[in-house]
Amino acid sequence: FFVVFLISILFRVHGFADQHIHSTVESPSTCTAQTPRIKTMSENDEPNPPVWPDSVMIFSPPANASEAKQIMDRIQPTQDPILKWEDFSDNPLPDGYPKETFMSGNHFVEERWALLFTPGDYKGVDFEIGYYVQMLGLGSKADDVTFVECKKGPFISALEKFTVRPPNGLGLDTFWRSAENFATAPSDGMKWVVSQAAPLRRVHIHSNLHLSERDAYVSGGVLANAVVEGTTDFGGQQQWISKNVHFKQKAVNGAWNLVFVGCTGDLPKASNGIVKSLSVTIDKSPRIRVEKPFIALEQDTNGAYNDRFVLRVPPVTKGADAVGPDLSGCKDDVRSFTRVKLGVPSSKSDHALAAKENNESLQAALDEGKDLVLSPGIYFLLEPLVLRKPHQVLLGIGLATLVAPKNGSPCVRVESKTPGVRVAGIMLEASVQDKRNDDNGSATQNVDGIASLFEWGSPDVTDDNGDPDFPGVLTDIFVRVGGSNPDRSVSTDVMVRIHSSNVVGDNLWLWRADHVKLRDGELPNFPHISPHYWQVVKDECKVKNGLVVNGHNVTMHGLFVEHTEETQTIWNGNDGMVRFYQCELPYDVSLDFADNGFVGYKIHEDVVRHDAQGLGIYSNFRDYNVESVTAIKHPIGDNVAIKIKNPFTVKLGNQGMIRTVVNGMGPGPQGFSFRISRHDTDGEL
User: Fold this and answer.
1) Which of 23, 327, 405, 592 could form a disulfide with 142 if both were Cys (CB 3.0 to 4.6 A apart)?
2) What is the DSSP string of 493-562?
3) What is the pLDDT of residue 275?
4) What is the per-residue pLDDT across 579-617, written as a single tens digit (0 to 9) for each?
5) pLDDT < 70 stretches in the chain
């Protein structure tokens, strides 16, 4: 059905390059249409166009208001549930309250969706992007898909406006959704009120951009490879990283920590945050920049789109080319979908049988050297998906979710000494582990016996230097231990380990759940915190560390690590570089957490070079009066060149505290009078 539908609609946008309304949305750059690399056709080629599953919706530009409404009606089931005031209360609507609000009832659902928009103008189309929904333009340039003459376009607003700090609502739990590769010109401005795991990428915004709403609490977020024509208002965003964004007008407000990497235009003034509590970190010249791969429609040599699909892989850039946005796609490596496997999750209800089917289908394609695009859905795994071919791409759309094997093996493993691999757009989820021992004969476990959810390289390969010109890249990787699974014995040892050198990370959220789905008939254990979820307590959803880096020259732009039971991030390799780190320590740990010296960010004592900027580490020790000695540990010595810029801590509430910021230095919070503490040497060590 979807193939026939796609072919029919593409006749309407064929020749789009000549018909598009450039006066509405002007592309910042243009280039000649690229035709894909196509090897000799073989019997193992994939169908192009692919046969999309029902979890993928494809839209064409509406010819009139009626067709615009049809688009919005189709999207409506993917949006967050709506609660109208009259269904909530018999009282008159108070002044300042909205007539309806989006709710968070889809927080742990199993459905996943990808909304694909073919090139053209989408007049009068407004829609909310809900949980586990990704919206994607299918043009080679961001400006090829435009939302015009609309009030909101694609948007996300605060949730729960009648039930959480009314009428402000909440954005703290607005996770697991994304949008990319389009232009928008909404009359109300673009609203993107989110927290972690909700990136906005490759966009041209012809209006103001609102990253918060009223006084709703928000804890974001990532804006990458974008042009914003109007004012960007961070509002009350606790933290945010902007990467390769051009701000044509001012970027204003923000609460604690704003980081700008490779950005241009009207940026705020850099600040260590000691006086005004908002630190602003600006890295004008990042050492490397690699944008996320994306799917698009194929173009003929004259620029007209046809019905076939391509995978576009942006290049590695350095120096001046690593600064500012690139929405043109001129230098992309364009790969035909004839050599891209479209993964569709097994429909078998038995998880073990589904896992076997998933592994057989997906691994066979990877071993043939094909790239792999995972359609929306949940993929149970029997063993890791292994990438062995240089420059191979594993891309998930619609928040495709991989559930870990039950023997401690990772969901994904990139073999050592495999340059140029890209892994992007996937969720990884821990499973309930079978008892692991040395006699189970599994060849898929990590060689050192440590369970994990993602492995880049192998701990027994110590000379995996990678390739600085073709680094491995992780983009939009969202990992969770606990959440949707009602069995709280899900576990792993470490979420992500990087053994290879020259790897780049761009927006990783590594989350040990602080709240999980209620079992049928179960009441919440802390109803004053939330009536909707179970709050994780000691010995549930167990995981020691979020990220362990053993490789050298590893770069992270946007790293979020939260709630693990021991040290959150451990960095063992030299020449690590981090721009933006957000870390919340676990709520439920006992006094042993402090007694054992666990911290938010630890650089190994043998490391001599490291550069980390814009680091915020928060405490909210709910169950025990934990007093951590410090937030960040690193070695000190005559030959040690460690740079820690703009670090700070925040006491969010409850008991205990983090006493100091770095290595026992910097003031800690006292009660609630100093929620934010900064290091007092201009933010640098």
Assistant:
1) 327
2) SEEEEE-SSSEEEEEEEEEE-SEEEPPTTPPPSSTTT-SSEEEP-TTSSB-SEEEEE-SSS-EEEEEEEE
3) 77
4) 999 999 999 999 999 999 999 999 999 999 999 999 999
5) 1-30, 32-33, 35, 37-42, 435-442, 668-685
* 616 DSSP β-pair partners: 582, 648
Q: How far apart are CA 460 and CA 448, in angstroms?
A: 8
In this prediction the pTM is: 0.93
Residue reference for tokens 């992780």: 474
The CB density around residue 474, as the number of other CB atoms within 10 Å, is 24
Q: Is 672 exposed, middle or buried (0-12, 13-18, 19+ CB in 10 A)?
A: exposed
Phi, psi of 409 (to 5 degrees): -70, 155
Q: For the chain, percent helix, then strand, then coil, each to nearest 5? A: 10, 35, 55
- The secondary structure of residue 339, as a DSSP letter, is G
Sign of CA dihedral 66, 72, 75, 81: negative
> What confidence tens digit (pLDDT) does each residue in 545-582 have?
999 999 999 999 999 999 999 999 999 999 999 999 99
Q: Which residues of 350-377 are buried (b: 16+ CB within 10 A; e: fewer)?
A: ebeebbbbbbebbbebbeeebbbbbbbb
CA separation for the pair 366, 413 (Å, rounded):
12
Burial of 214 per CB tally in 10 Å (0-12, 13-18, 19+) = middle
What is the structure's pLDDT at 187? 98
255 DSSP assignment:
S
| 9: enclosing H helix or E strand | helix 2-13
What is the chain's mean pLDDT, rounded?
A: 92
Question: Residue 665: beta bridge partners?
Answer: 662
Map residue 284 onto helix, strand or coil. coil
Burial class (CB in 10 A: 0-12, 13-18, 19+), 42: exposed
Between CA 141 and CA 62 the distance in angstroms is: 20
pLDDT of residue 444: 83
- C-alpha closest to that of 576 among 556, 545, 554, 594: 554
| pLDDT score recorded for residue 582 | 98
Instruction: Give the per-residue SS3 of 612-680.
Output: EEEEEEEECECCCCCEEEEEEECCCCCCCEEEEEEEEEEECCCECEEEEEECCECCCCCCCCCCEEECC
**Closest-CA residue to 374 (of 343, 341, 412, 411):** 343
Exposed, middle or buried: residue 260 (CB in 10 Å: 0-12, 13-18, 19+)? buried
